Amino acid sequence: CNRKEILASAAPVSGATDVTCLNDGWQPRIPIFYENGTKDMASTIDSAHTMVDSIVKQLDLTGGMEIAGDGHYSRKHWEGSGGMLFDYIEHDYGGQPVLDGHCIPGGVDTPTMGKNNFSLNATTCTTGDITINWGELALQWYVDHPRMH
Fold it and tell me: How buried is 126 (Cβ within 10 angstroms: 0-12 exposed, 13-18 middle, 19+ buried)?
Protein backbone atom coordinates (compact mmCIF):
# COMPACT_ATOMS: atom_id res chain seq x y z
CA CYS A 1 0.00 0.00 0.00
CA ASN A 2 2.66 2.50 0.92
CA ARG A 3 4.93 1.94 -2.12
CA LYS A 4 2.35 1.95 -4.91
CA GLU A 5 4.19 4.71 -6.79
CA ILE A 6 6.91 2.22 -7.78
CA LEU A 7 4.52 -0.55 -8.87
CA ALA A 8 2.79 -0.96 -12.20
CA SER A 9 0.48 -3.76 -11.05
CA ALA A 10 0.44 -6.51 -8.43
CA ALA A 11 -0.33 -10.24 -8.37
CA PRO A 12 -0.22 -11.50 -4.75
CA VAL A 13 -0.76 -15.20 -4.01
CA SER A 14 -2.62 -16.70 -1.04
CA GLY A 15 -2.00 -13.91 1.40
CA ALA A 16 -5.29 -12.74 2.86
CA THR A 17 -4.34 -9.84 5.08
CA ASP A 18 -5.48 -6.49 6.38
CA VAL A 19 -6.22 -4.17 3.45
CA THR A 20 -7.53 -1.14 5.33
CA CYS A 21 -4.85 0.93 3.59
CA LEU A 22 -6.76 0.53 0.33
CA ASN A 23 -9.18 3.44 0.67
CA ASP A 24 -10.43 6.51 -1.18
CA GLY A 25 -7.04 8.21 -0.83
CA TRP A 26 -5.08 5.26 -2.18
CA GLN A 27 -3.53 6.84 -5.28
CA PRO A 28 -2.29 6.04 -7.79
CA ARG A 29 -4.52 3.02 -8.20
CA ILE A 30 -2.70 -0.06 -9.45
CA PRO A 31 -4.36 -3.15 -10.91
CA ILE A 32 -4.40 -6.13 -8.53
CA PHE A 33 -4.69 -9.80 -9.49
CA TYR A 34 -5.12 -12.10 -6.48
CA GLU A 35 -5.30 -15.90 -6.11
CA ASN A 36 -6.34 -18.15 -3.21
CA GLY A 37 -7.21 -21.82 -2.81
CA THR A 38 -10.49 -22.95 -1.27
CA LYS A 39 -8.59 -25.65 0.66
CA ASP A 40 -5.80 -23.31 1.80
CA MET A 41 -4.98 -24.02 5.44
CA ALA A 42 -2.84 -20.87 5.89
CA SER A 43 -4.72 -18.16 4.01
CA THR A 44 -8.17 -19.65 4.58
CA ILE A 45 -10.90 -19.13 2.02
CA ASP A 46 -13.01 -17.26 4.59
CA SER A 47 -10.10 -14.83 5.15
CA ALA A 48 -9.65 -14.47 1.39
CA HIS A 49 -13.36 -13.72 0.92
CA THR A 50 -13.22 -11.11 3.70
CA MET A 51 -10.20 -9.49 2.03
CA VAL A 52 -11.80 -9.50 -1.44
CA ASP A 53 -15.04 -8.06 -0.05
CA SER A 54 -13.06 -5.35 1.77
CA ILE A 55 -11.11 -4.38 -1.35
CA VAL A 56 -14.29 -4.18 -3.41
CA LYS A 57 -16.07 -2.09 -0.76
CA GLN A 58 -13.18 0.21 0.18
CA LEU A 59 -12.31 1.02 -3.44
CA ASP A 60 -15.97 1.20 -4.51
CA LEU A 61 -15.45 -1.37 -7.26
CA THR A 62 -18.21 -2.62 -9.53
CA GLY A 63 -18.59 -5.89 -11.36
CA GLY A 64 -17.66 -9.19 -9.78
CA MET A 65 -18.80 -11.22 -12.74
CA GLU A 66 -17.06 -14.48 -13.48
CA ILE A 67 -14.93 -14.02 -16.60
CA ALA A 68 -13.36 -17.51 -16.65
CA GLY A 69 -13.72 -20.81 -14.86
CA ASP A 70 -14.28 -24.53 -15.23
CA GLY A 71 -15.79 -25.87 -12.01
CA HIS A 72 -12.37 -26.13 -10.32
CA TYR A 73 -11.43 -22.47 -10.52
CA SER A 74 -13.29 -19.20 -10.94
CA ARG A 75 -11.94 -15.84 -12.07
CA LYS A 76 -13.93 -12.70 -11.26
CA HIS A 77 -13.32 -9.12 -12.39
CA TRP A 78 -14.09 -5.70 -10.88
CA GLU A 79 -13.37 -2.13 -12.02
CA GLY A 80 -13.28 1.25 -10.32
CA SER A 81 -12.20 4.86 -10.55
CA GLY A 82 -8.67 5.89 -11.37
CA GLY A 83 -8.21 2.92 -13.69
CA MET A 84 -8.54 0.46 -10.81
CA LEU A 85 -8.87 -3.16 -11.90
CA PHE A 86 -9.17 -6.14 -9.59
CA ASP A 87 -9.27 -9.80 -10.62
CA TYR A 88 -9.60 -12.71 -8.20
CA ILE A 89 -9.02 -16.40 -8.86
CA GLU A 90 -10.26 -19.03 -6.45
CA HIS A 91 -9.35 -22.70 -7.02
CA ASP A 92 -9.92 -26.09 -5.39
CA TYR A 93 -6.48 -27.53 -6.16
CA GLY A 94 -4.24 -28.91 -3.44
CA GLY A 95 -1.18 -30.95 -2.73
CA GLN A 96 0.97 -28.72 -0.54
CA PRO A 97 2.22 -31.22 2.08
CA VAL A 98 1.03 -29.45 5.24
CA LEU A 99 -1.20 -26.61 4.08
CA ASP A 100 -2.99 -28.42 1.18
CA GLY A 101 -4.55 -25.67 -0.98
CA HIS A 102 -1.85 -23.15 -0.05
CA CYS A 103 -0.23 -23.77 -3.41
CA ILE A 104 0.43 -22.19 -6.80
CA PRO A 105 -1.37 -23.76 -9.76
CA GLY A 106 0.52 -24.65 -12.89
CA GLY A 107 4.03 -25.31 -11.73
CA VAL A 108 5.98 -28.54 -11.78
CA ASP A 109 6.99 -30.06 -8.44
CA THR A 110 10.12 -32.08 -9.21
CA PRO A 111 12.92 -33.56 -7.11
CA THR A 112 15.54 -31.92 -9.32
CA MET A 113 14.41 -28.43 -8.24
CA GLY A 114 15.42 -28.89 -4.61
CA LYS A 115 13.48 -28.83 -1.38
CA ASN A 116 11.56 -25.91 0.05
CA ASN A 117 9.88 -26.07 3.47
CA PHE A 118 8.30 -29.51 3.81
CA SER A 119 9.03 -31.63 0.75
CA LEU A 120 10.01 -31.06 -2.84
CA ASN A 121 9.14 -27.51 -3.82
CA ALA A 122 6.22 -27.35 -1.36
CA THR A 123 4.44 -24.54 -3.18
CA THR A 124 3.15 -26.20 -6.35
CA CYS A 125 -0.43 -27.48 -6.58
CA THR A 126 -0.18 -31.17 -7.42
CA THR A 127 -3.73 -32.47 -6.89
CA GLY A 128 -6.98 -31.66 -8.63
CA ASP A 129 -7.95 -30.99 -12.22
CA ILE A 130 -5.43 -28.16 -12.66
CA THR A 131 -6.21 -26.21 -15.82
CA ILE A 132 -4.55 -22.86 -15.08
CA ASN A 133 -0.97 -21.75 -14.71
CA TRP A 134 -0.67 -18.89 -12.22
CA GLY A 135 2.79 -17.92 -13.45
CA GLU A 136 1.58 -17.45 -17.01
CA LEU A 137 -1.56 -15.61 -15.90
CA ALA A 138 0.40 -13.28 -13.59
CA LEU A 139 2.98 -12.50 -16.28
CA GLN A 140 0.18 -11.69 -18.73
CA TRP A 141 -1.40 -9.46 -16.06
CA TYR A 142 1.86 -7.51 -15.83
CA VAL A 143 2.11 -7.23 -19.63
CA ASP A 144 -1.50 -6.06 -19.87
CA HIS A 145 -1.11 -3.52 -17.05
CA PRO A 146 2.17 -1.62 -17.46
CA ARG A 147 3.07 1.40 -15.40
CA MET A 148 0.75 4.22 -16.41
CA HIS A 149 1.79 6.98 -13.98
Answer: middle
